[in-house]
Amino acid sequence: MATTSDIRNGLCIRYNSDIYKIIEFLHVKPGKGPAFVRTKMKSVTNGKIIDNTFSAGHKLEDVRVETHKFQYLYNDGEFYHFMNEADYTQIRLLEAALDNPGLMKEGEVVTVIINAEDNMPLSVEMPANVILEVTATEPGVKGNTATNATKPATVETGATVNVPLFINEGDKIKVETEKGTYKERVKE
């Protein structure tokens, strides 16, 4: 059993007969009344995100998890297929278990969180940043740069990312996976 003081990002808990992963939390100590923890949790079975508030000291049933490195192989439309780097076993996951599947390219190494009790995969954590090649974007128009102007660009995985006007087709860019936002252009 865990308490609200054990809450951290990535913690998996059993709540309302489902398993949720904490994606955001905030400890609040108001001037009046008891302290509480405001959380944003994502269901690992269906991908739904819920907000919940726990009072301070509330008991939580945590789920014991293990993390393993897996390599992303391919997507067959319904399932995403991964291979364990240690023993080469393969697993397949539904899109709901993935945080941002549009930014994952074949061969990418990700961390898969597995329930230690029944060896079922719960969720996939991507690296903080990925480097992707821009495959299609409109050319930037000079003089259109009064403020931080951006334009949509399609990357090699098929996802669309807003990029600055100076980015052209063929450029490699670093994308933050958590938000799906442009970070910087990568020089080769």
UniProtKB/TrEMBL annotation:
Its GO biological process annotations read:
peptide biosynthetic process
Q: Which SMART domains match?
A: EFP, Elong-fact-P_C
The molecular function terms in GO held by this entry are: translation elongation factor activity
Q: Which UniProt keywords apply?
A: Cytoplasm, Elongation factor, Protein biosynthesis
Protein name (database record): Elongation factor P
* Xref: PANTHER family: ELONGATION FACTOR P (PTHR30053), ELONGATION FACTOR P (EF-P) FAMILY PROTEIN (PTHR30053:SF12)
Q: Where is the Elongation factor P C-terminal domain?
A: 130-185
Purpose: Involved in peptide bond synthesis. Stimulates efficient translation and peptide-bond synthesis on native or reconstituted 70S ribosomes in vitro. Probably functions indirectly by altering the affinity of the ribosome for aminoacyl-tRNA, thus increasing their reactivity as acceptors for peptidyl transferase.
Q: Which SUPFAM superfamilies match?
A: Nucleic acid-binding proteins, Translation proteins SH3-like domain
Q: Where are the transmembrane segments?
A: none
- Domain Translation elongation factor P/YeiP central per the UniProt entry, residue ranges: 67-122
Primary place of residence?
cytoplasm
List the InterPro entries hit by this protein, alphabetically: Elong-fact-P_C, NA-bd_OB-fold, Rib_uL2_dom2, Transl_elong_fac_P/YeiP, Transl_elong_KOW-like, Transl_elong_P/YeiP_cen, Transl_elong_P/YeiP_CS, Transl_elongation_fac_P
Instruction: Supply the HAMAP family for this chain.
Output: EF_P
Query: Source organism's superkingdom?
Result: Bacteria
- Gene3D superfamilies given in the database record: 2.30.30.30, Nucleic acid-binding proteins (2.40.50.140)
- State the species of origin: Pseudalgibacter alginicilyticus
Keyword Hydrolase in annotation: no
